[in-house]
């Protein structure tokens, strides 16, 4: 069975600083990888995805992530964060061998951007 | 931009009562999902629905749960006899077609069982 581990439950950072949110997954088959963001009292919004091709993927709001198959990681990065990036971020995986595509989520990382 | 909607935003019910959570997926999507998030825990998969039948369900999705797409636009989750541990945020999601793996989530329904 696949699983997703987000190594940091909370990440505090100052505005305009870079940030990396870490995600590792375990799966015996190929996977599709996603990052979702959840702002307070809102639903989950897709930030970016890796399905195939280039291992560096860019998403909305200046975020990017790099798929590393050998390290089974999909870390999320942003070179300069804003106060508005304060939210909870979820890494998620879909088993590439299935058609129905259930998402398995990590525990979430709360990113807090301080002025 | 089309979006997934869910009603109600918050539902309070007493233990043992039946609740129906409603979702309107994006109109041309073919795959539908329910997830839940207990406060402080990770988002968990409940069930997926395709071609008018359940395609996959988790261990959480026992006989107390059912899903339905009654009219081609709504997608509902019914809990027959709620328990305290059913208190959670329930998210509906939809996906366009097989080759497109992105799921689009609704804002959620917060279910509180007292």
Q: Supply the helix-strand structural class of chain B.
A: mainly beta
**Structural class by secondary-structure content of chain A:** mainly beta
Write down the secondary-structure element order of chain A.
Answer: EEEEEEEEEEEE
The percentage helix of chain A is under 10%
Could you write a compact summary of the structure shown?
The complex is a heterodimer of chains A (115) and B (114). Chain A has 115 residues and is an all-beta fold. Chain A has strands at residues 3-6, 10-14, 19-21, 23-26, 31-38, 44-50, 56-58, 64-68, 73-78, 87-95, 104-105, 109-114.
What do these coordinates show?
The complex is a heterodimer of chains A (about 120) and B (about 110). Chain A has about 120 residues and is mainly β. Chain A is about 0% helix and about 55% strand. The N and C termini of chain A lie far apart (about 40 Å). The mean pLDDT of chain A is about 90. Chain B has strands at about 5, 10-15, 20-25, 30-35, 45-50, 55, 65-70, 75-80, 90-95, 105, 110-114. The mean pLDDT of chain B is about 95. Chain B has about 110 residues and is an all-beta fold. The interface of A and B includes residues 36 and 103 of A.
Descriptive tags:
heterodimer; A: 115 residues; mainly beta; six-stranded mixed beta sheet; four-stranded antiparallel beta sheet; globular; B: 114 residues; seven-stranded mixed beta sheet; 0% helix; 50% strand
Task: Please describe the topology of this protein.
The complex is a heterodimer of chains A (115) and B (114).
Chain A: E1 3-6, E2 10-14, E3 19-21, E4 23-26, E5 31-38, E6 44-50, E7 56-58, E8 64-68, E9 73-78, E10 87-95, E11 104-105, E12 109-114
Parallel strand pairs in A: 2-12
Antiparallel strand pairs in A: 1-4, 3-9, 5-6, 5-10, 7-8, 8-9, 10-11, 10-12
Chain B: E1 5-7, E2 10-13, E3 19-24, E4 31-37, E5 43-50, E6 53-57, E7 65-68, E8 75-79, E9 88-95, E10 104-105, E11 109-113
Parallel strand pairs in B: 2-11
Antiparallel strand pairs in B: 1-3, 3-8, 4-5, 4-9, 5-6, 7-8, 9-10, 9-11
């Amino acid at each position: 069975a696949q699983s997703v581990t987000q190594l940091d439950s909370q990440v505090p950072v100052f505005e305009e600083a870079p940030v990396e949110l870490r995600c590792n997954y375990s799966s015996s088959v190929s996977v599709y990888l996603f990052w979702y963001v959840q702002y307070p009292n809102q639903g989950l919004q897709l930030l970016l995805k890796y399905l195939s091709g280039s291992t560096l993927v860019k998403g909305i709001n200046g975020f990017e992530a790099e798929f590393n198959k050998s390290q089974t990681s999909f870390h999320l990065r942003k070179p300069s964060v804003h106060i508005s990036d304060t939210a909870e971020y979820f890494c998620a995986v879909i088993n590439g061998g299935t058609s129905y595509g259930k998402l398995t989520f990590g525990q979430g990382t709360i990113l807090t951007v301080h002025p | 931009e089309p979006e997934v909607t869910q009603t109600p935003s918050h539902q309070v019910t007493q233990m043992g009562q039946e609740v129906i959570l409603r979702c309107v997926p994006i109109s041309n999507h073919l795959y539908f999902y329910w997830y839940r998030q207990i406060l402080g825990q990770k988002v968990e998969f409940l069930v997926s629905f395709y071609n008018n039948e359940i395609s996959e369900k988790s261990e959480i999705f026992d006989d107390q749960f059912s899903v339905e797409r009654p009219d081609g636009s709504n997608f509902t989750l019914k809990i027959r006899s709620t328990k305290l541990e059913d208190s959670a945020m329930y998210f509906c999601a939809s996906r366009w077609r097989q080759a497109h793996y992105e799921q689009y989530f609704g804002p959620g329904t917060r279910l509180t069982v007292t």
